[in-house]
Amino acid sequence: MTNSLVYPHVLQDEDQIRYHIVLEEKLLKNDMHNGMHRETMLGFSYQVGFFLQNGQLYINEAPINYTNIATDKGVIHGLGKILEIQKNRCDINDTVITTEKCTLCLYRSRCPPGTKEFLGEKKYCIYTENFFGRTSIHIGCQPKCIKTIITRECCAGFFGQQCQPCPGKSGNACFGNGICLDGVNGTGMCECEEGFNGTACEKCIEGKYGRNCDQECACVHGKCSSGIEGDGSCECDVGWRGVNCESEIKNDACNSTCHTSANCLLMSNGTAYCKCAAGFQGNGTHCTVIDACETSNGGCSIKAECKRTTPGNRVCVCAAGYTGDGIVCLEINPCLENNGGCDRNAECTQTGPNQAVCNCLKGYSGDGKTCTYINLCLSNNGGCSEFATCNDTELTERTCTCKPDFVGDGFKCRGNIYQELLKDSNTTRFYSHLKALALKDIAGSGPFTVFVPSTEALNGEPKIKDWIVNGVMPQILRYHMVGCAGLFYNDLKTITNVTSLQGDPIQTSFSQNSVYLNTKAKIISSDIISANGVVHIIDKILLPQHMQEFPKGESGTERESLKMVAAKQGYIMFSNLLENAGLMSVISDPLHKPVTLFWPTDAALRALPKEQQDFLFKKSNKDKLVQYLKFHIIRDAKILACDLPNSKSLKTLQGSDLSVKCGDNNDNSSIGDLFLNDRRCRIVQRYLEFDGGIAYGIDCMLMDPTLGGRCDSFITADIKGDCVGCYSNPKCPTATKPKGGMQKCTYQIYGRNIDGCRQDCSMVVWVAKCCRGYYGRDCQACPGGPETPCNNHGSCNDGYSGTGECKCNNGFNGTSCELCLPGRYGSDCKPCNCNSHGQCDEGHAGSGECFCETGWTGRVCETKLVLPPVCSPNCSSNAVCKENNMCQCKPFYEGDGITCTAVNLCKQNNGGCHQNSKCTQTGVKVLCSCQKGYTGDGRTCFPINPCADGLNGGCHEHAICTMTGPDKRKCECKNNYVGDGLDCTVMQLPIDRCLQDNGQCHADADCADLHFQDATVGVFHWRSPQGQYKLTFEKAKEACDSQGATIATYNQLSYAQKARYHFCAAGWLDGERVGYPTAFPSPNCGSGFVGIVDYGVRNNLSETWDVFCFRIKDVNCTCKPGYIGNGFTCSGNLLQVLMSFPMFTNFLSEVLVYSNSSTKGREFLKYLTNLSTRATLFAPNNNGLRENETLSGRDIEYHLSNASTMFYGDLTNGTTLQTRIGKRLLITYSVGQDYQIQTTKKNETRYVDGKSILEWDLIASNGVIHVISEPLKAPLLPASHAGFGTGIFFAIILVIGIVAFVGYAYFRFKKKNIGFRYFKSKEDIDVTALDKPSNITNPTYESSAAPLPEPTYDPFSDSDEQQLVMSGPHDQF
């Protein structure tokens, strides 16, 4: 914290000391602007003001004697007197106490900006934390934060923003004769009581007198002694007499001896005498007019002009810049109207009669007329972490948000574990081992739990060197890591074991109020949270039970062959299968190295059913076995265990994909475990390294549902490398590998043939193929199954580009050739031989027997009976009459023959229809139709794969169509595309608009693209004030519109989700759809799905949800330090503005010539660039100052007024401006212009020293420039009249004086020790000779010091540069 201390010679009580201190701001002299106010240590209600009077800087009424005494806590300025505490503010302070969210007690509480922590007893609380989908409960602390809301109020008797005193005496506003309109918004006007009048209610109304102004004057023809001090007596006019001047004088008893302006009066004894009439004075015989203005300015204010009217009377007229009745004249305060023309974010301070200055409020920069918000984020990232995005706007508090891949509160952001280990001295040793071995397992997305042995534990272990030499150190380090879970200390207390990344389990136990690992290592520091997991520090090193040992070679440890590793680790059976299938050569082929192998243990293979074992080892199934084994191999990749769960595609040699998932963290027995293919297989051993890659032991044989469908093959193409110099290490092209050979070749350089070398290279091309009996891009089984495609009764159109249709052999029919054509029977679909009088028992299950009609017999019903049998009663129409009066129902009918009903064939095995088919029956004819989502003839039904329709299932061309069920699919946009799958567009990451043309900001402005910095890319969630899910679609659009936003589209929400926006509450989206984004898996949010949980388009728009809105944030432009403007336009200092306008080329050239020719010229140039300057420059354009015309240095400095910044509107007629050379410039208007008119007309012309002002108000950061028609010529210096001889005489005297002074100084310093002295700088002004200035903020009426001549230098800047006097033990004040 930096402070400013004003240091008077004597201080009394503590409050006075506090009144002299400004906190949290280091104010140097150049920072103290005229009219500026700052809050002191006493609080907001006790402010000090800074004022410039006649070149001297004051704080309130105290002059500054010396400045800029630097200390380690701030800066000190010396004052000539003690500051009197001004109690003119009576601000109302309201304190609001808020309770913030529950956090870890170890964390330093962060109260919101603008609040402070309430330092009292901490309140304990319970909070839950969801870390990568795992919920944990913690005991934390709930801080209380205090926010003080200050309502500005003036004390009684004070008014305006600066709380100036009302008219009247101190403590007696309006002299007690009226009510002052006081308060912050008051005008300071006095509303007088009955009988009183005047600006400060200081007089009676006309015709009243007495202390209460309640008595009427009775004078009829005379002047009454009226007013507060009057007694009501009358002085009669000429020709009248009497107590009330009511009697007319008709007889002159004085015999015409009285003056013409006198009356002849009678005494009580009848004696006549002469008395001067009202308004005249004398002895009666001689009377003169009374000059009412002669004494004490006629009772008028000293700020008023007394004007005589009738004899003995006068009027008082306040001087220019003042207002009032003349008796009391108040300085006109321009700040009371429209804030004095200052910016709304500036304070207007009255500095004199009708004069004011504008100073931007704290947090804003500019000249006061225009104030620009100071974006805190542009300096030191606004106090946020370097890994956070700072967002600060004028309408909102500054916020800090950690960038993607970092976590924290924004002020402190933590990266992944690998990054954070380096920041703690207790974990740096562990980090150094990871780095030395290039282990970056814990640098991934996680989550991880890492048990880090302390630096002391690692330094104290003597075996580490041996572990490194033997190559087992990576296994030991990985044994301290747990993947798939971020476990907190409380989690570890409730579980018994976890599986490490190395593969071996770690036992956990809770004993003696501490957590122990493997009953030995104690957790000494816990719950160090990072972006991808949690770190716990332990006091001992953990050692796994099983470690793979490596033989030593000439260059260290070596990796053994796959067969040797299999023999040592218990994978002999699978190794033999690989060898028998001929896959060992594939694994050892350099084109496929390195490989990742998942091999079942010998115990897992022995546990297979006998039939499956016989199948695997049967020679006739070798081709099938090869595909099974390829399903366990991934080529050209050595995948670490930490990367397996996050690998999106693990394509095997067989062509199908493997999937690896973490164990269920809610199941304490599987934390850290890895499972393959929907958790059917568990990885039981990890990181088995061999000379061709890495292997993982699994507890089962992988059996994919489509296993055998893919028979991908590889084509090896020979490619020649580029021909280069043999000593240039010839390389193979990208995506190829060297075969090991080198060939001679010739290449050309500058037309010459040069002998060189090229590598023999080869490239593996993956060719997608389906095995025999499979078809399509997903290699589905042909109808009838891959073993018997088309039931071996036809040929399947198989292969990767096949359709899967069966072309049946003669006599067969059906989708899978499972049926016989009509008139055929048996498994071979032989033709039936029945003639037209018989019905054949046909079909695939038929016997071929003939059922003869009544009257026919024979094997094929070829014989007609002579006497047809007769049955009585008659047989059913669905029966035939047989001999012996017997009725027999026809096939597929049942009954006694008299009555025959059709058998319900659909009840028996679904009528022979497929299980996914619907069976319907008409008579005895069965009709099979596949259910929705399936296709086929009903006897055979296959699920429809909508993705195989040739149109990508209706998904976008840049989307992946995945079958999720019969005739169901999902569409997902490919990488680098965004959308819902039906519509995918190229992902366009937000572009920092500041990179293009500085975001349309001025070249001298700093640009900040708030939209680019937004962590959610413009998307935000909005909920009704009435609660969750209360918005219809129309209300949702209105809600977004009220926030200056639109309802977000699906793509906009997708961009936010990819920026890790996670919000588990559904909301409306554009297009009448509903969804919400998830950035990490959570069982309670989207069932662990990561992406956009899409509820689809809603038909009922009256449904109520929340809403996601989208708003593009603006580009924030802020002029750089030293420039002024709104960011889109920025002006530099006076010199920079001159240089930016071509019309000033000639004048600028003269200024530069002047600066190069003299010290004063350099000082003048430096003055133009000094940011503390507040000057007005009159610059001639090139038409007025010709190229061949020259100006003297004195002429140039005459163009600059260093008194203040005077805008065109301030240049009123008769205004004079002090210049650098001490002379004044005169402002006049065009001829015929009435000087009393204060408004500017369009056709008027203003002149400075007779030169017309052509253009005006070219604003600079330290002043303003007005363009004039011709250059100004400085008045000539007075000529010297001293003679030549006199000059020689004084020169001799000067030389003698110098010699005498040198001698005196030599002997004086020779006798004394040299000591430190405090020397005044050029700006340390002796104020004792200066008059005391009037109090500007609280002006005292009827008094003002006479103005002193203005200085010829800028009191806010030093002649060279700002000086800091360093304080020390020898400083003397």
UniProtKB/TrEMBL annotation:
Region: Disordered, residue numbers: 1333-1373
Sample GO molecular function, one term: hyaluronic acid binding
Q: Which GO terms describe its biological process?
A: cell adhesion; endocytosis
Task: List each copy of the Link domain by range.
Answer: 1018-1111
Q: Which keywords describe this protein according to UniProt?
A: Disulfide bond, EGF-like domain, Glycoprotein, Laminin EGF-like domain, Membrane, Receptor, Repeat, Transmembrane, Transmembrane helix
Gene3D superfamilies linked: FAS1 domain, Laminin, Mannose-Binding Protein A, subunit A, Tie2 ligand-binding domain superfamily
Pfam families cross-referenced by the UniProt entry: EGF_3, EGF_STAB1-2, Fasciclin, Xlink
> Where primarily located?
membrane
Q: Per its UniProt record, what InterPro entries does this chain match?
A: C-type_lectin-like/link_sf (IPR016186), CTDL_fold (IPR016187), EGF (IPR000742), EGF_STAB1-2 (IPR056806), FAS1_dom_sf (IPR036378), FAS1_domain (IPR000782), Growth_fac_rcpt_cys_sf (IPR009030), LE_dom (IPR002049)
Q: Which residues cross the membrane?
A: 1282-1307
Segments of skewed composition (Polar residues):
1334-1343
The membrane topology of this protein is:
Single-pass type I membrane protein
Q: Which domain of life is it from?
A: Eukaryota
Per UniProt, residues of the FAS1 domain are 1-83, 414-542, 558-702, 1131-1272
Limits of the EGF-like domain: 164-202, 209-246, 250-288, 289-330, 331-372, 373-412, 778-818, 825-862, 902-942, 943-985
The cellular location(s) given in this protein's UniProt record come to:
Membrane
GO cellular component terms? membrane
Q: Provide the disulphide bond pattern.
A: C192-C201, C217-C234, C236-C245, C254-C264, C808-C817, C852-C861, C1040-C1109, C1064-C1085
Protein's UniProt name: Stabilin 2
Provenance organism: Pelodiscus sinensis
